[in-house]
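ok so I'm stuck.
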Amino acid sequence: MRVATEITLDASEEIRLRKITSSNTCPVRLARRAQIVLLAAEGKSNLEIAQILKIGRHQVSRWRDRYAQEGFSGIEQDRARSGRKKQIDAAEIVSLTTNTLPENATHWSTRTMAAVSGISERSVRRIWHAYGLKPHLEKTFKVSRGPKFVEKLEDIVGLYLSPPEHALVLCCDEKSQVQALDRTQPGLPLKRGRAATMTHDYKRHGTTTLFAALNVLDGAVIGQCQQRHTHVEWLKFLKQINRETAKDKELHLICDNYATHKHPKVREWLEKHPRFHMHFTPTSASWLNMVERFFRDLTSQRLRRGVFVSVPELVSAIDEYIEKHNQNPKPFIWTAKANDILEKVVRANRRLSCKKNDALH
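replied:
not stuck anymore, here's the structure
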């Protein structure tokens, strides 16, 4: 059992300490330390002193020991401290993250950045969060180099923002190579505390191609699954659009530059049906076609986690999804103006050109 340090005071020390405790000008902390020493000299334990002065027992023990070791100088002044902690330069961390790369990796992690900058991982994580930096993520992009990019962009965005009267605007495209995938083992269902499971490997049972036309006005979709996606199937789909739309409406179809859409037989058929007007997106600008947004929903909501043992089962699932969608369709609202998109493209091209010149030098 630890025994408190014994304190013995001579007459002069006791007088000096009592003057401090009764002084009105002495610092409060020094007066309290003097009281601790006087009570200790009376033979009281650290716990008793702490209860009398209503302070912590460890505080009593600290000043009692210091007086025993150093005398009055031990309680007169606080010991020198390490000083204010070094502040983290957030700007330097941001600069390192955005302008440099680690020696043996393609991107920074909190550990590698902490090792280089000499701060904790938590500090790195806090700075990245504050500045919206996510080195572990990477997004893909492709800037269109089409010679008629501006012309086609303004044409399509104009159809979205100011569609012609007495006409329908349809976004058309094929979702090719949709696979009927069956898992090699049955997964476990969702339950409390556990996500649903699915094997990473699968069995292929064939593919289908979905032809879809999204009505920009109300969000309804005309769909058709076919085995191939040549001009023959595209013509078949155009005939379906012709049957399922009002005959008194002009049809403006937005498509990509796939060769199937420009086949001579397709052009011949379009000439015989003048209410069809084709609008082609610029090269590498499929994002201008709003039907891609519908394809994304179809993939995430029905296909990605679906299990299909045959192509007919897959086609049936797609048809059912489109049918349910058309029961309560909601249009996708296009908000970006052509000028805003052009400004972003110009900035992207400028930065890409600068990086290319830097690489050449």
